[in-house]
Amino acid sequence: MIRLSQNSSLAGKFPANNWTSPIEYFSELPDSIGNLKLLGTLMLGYSQFVGPVPASLGNLTQLTLLHLMHNNFSGHIPSSLSNLVQLTCLDLSSNSFVGEIPDIVNLTQVSFFDLSNNQLAGSIPSHGSRLQNLVLIRLNNNSLSGTKPSWLLSLLLLEYVRLSDNQLSGHIDEFPSKSLQNICLSNNRLQGSIPSSIFELVNLTDLQLDSNNFSGIVEPYMFAKLIKLKNLYLSHNSLSLGNTFKIDSPFPKFSYLSLSACNISAFPSFLRTQDELSYLDLSEKKIDGQIPSWISEIGKDYLSYLNISHNFITKMKQIAWKNIGYLDLRSNLLQGPLLVPPSSLRVILILNKQFTREIIHSLCDIIALDVLDISNNRLSGTIPECIGNFSP
């Protein structure tokens, strides 16, 4: 086993030939590393290695664990890594690898596969159905394109899949695997309706589909079986959100809920059950009229982030959340004085053109404030001295 992880101050070079001598300097991996044919574990993560990964690494056929993450490796990922048929964990994340993902069909023992945060391009390999032991795959933050291969979400043991921040396109197939817990497909070019099988994934805790081109209607009753779901991101698609909901129906308790730019004209009634919310984004919708009185029950003891900007809201009652830190009310039709905000606020954004001078004085009870934007209103009079007392 060789483990040099998390030594960011190491510098120099590996020995070119004699690996039995003391290792004093590190920088690039030499071809001679391929001579360590009995090596089972190689952990070089979180260091400052540079340059390409030598193809000779593929000679280490006894490797079960290969960690090269968070370095400055560059160039192509060697195709010879497909020889590492004993690998159970491959982590090459957060480097500067380019080119396409090499053939992975022989890595039948791998359960953890992470190539995220590189500069990889091309499509995801189309042949991977033999990876029956795969539990986690991360390919996010690359420049991958093409369609998602059908084998990827059909693996029976797969629990975690993260393909966000790429250029993937096309429709999503159905999800036959019931083991999935975390699905992140955000910031791609995926389209079509959300597969109905997603709403059968009873172990799902995190679903992130935001910033794609998904369309269709999502009804609250569809989530009845997803009782474990905590984080839901559907923002910035072409989705319409239905509002038919029975208060006593089974429904998940969300922690994070992002529905920005979904097609909806009223506050979703299912929010009345969401007393554990800490993050809520309902911005860029068509919500009009007054904020309902029951909204203060949403995440009453937990809500720290609320964004209801860019709507047509006309009235808001007392802000009741004692732990709210970020409040965005910009671009609504709110008018008159704003009631006293809680002292926990650190960011408040209110650009409405209708508020009167009372808003300034109500801010004096805030203990610490990082951002205050109350521009484009109808404020007058003097600025109270308390504005100068805010401290981050």
From TrEMBL:
<keyword id="KW-0732">Signal</keyword>
<keyword id="KW-1133">Transmembrane helix</keyword>
<dbReference type="InterPro" id="IPR046956">
    <property type="entry name" value="RLP23-like"/>
</dbReference>
<keyword id="KW-0677">Repeat</keyword>
<keyword id="KW-0812">Transmembrane</keyword>
<protein>
    <recommendedName>
        <fullName>Leucine-rich repeat-containing N-terminal plant-type domain-containing protein</fullName>
    </recommendedName>
</protein>
<keyword id="KW-0472">Membrane</keyword>
<keyword id="KW-0675">Receptor</keyword>
<dbReference type="GO" id="GO:0016020">
    <property type="term" value="C:membrane"/>
</dbReference>
<dbReference type="Pfam" id="PF00560">
    <property type="entry name" value="LRR_1"/>
</dbReference>
<keyword id="KW-0325">Glycoprotein</keyword>
<comment type="similarity">
    <text>Belongs to the RLP family.</text>
</comment>
<dbReference type="Pfam" id="PF13855">
    <property type="entry name" value="LRR_8"/>
</dbReference>
<dbReference type="InterPro" id="IPR001611">
    <property type="entry name" value="Leu-rich_rpt"/>
</dbReference>
<keyword id="KW-0433">Leucine-rich repeat</keyword>
<dbReference type="InterPro" id="IPR032675">
    <property type="entry name" value="LRR_dom_sf"/>
</dbReference>
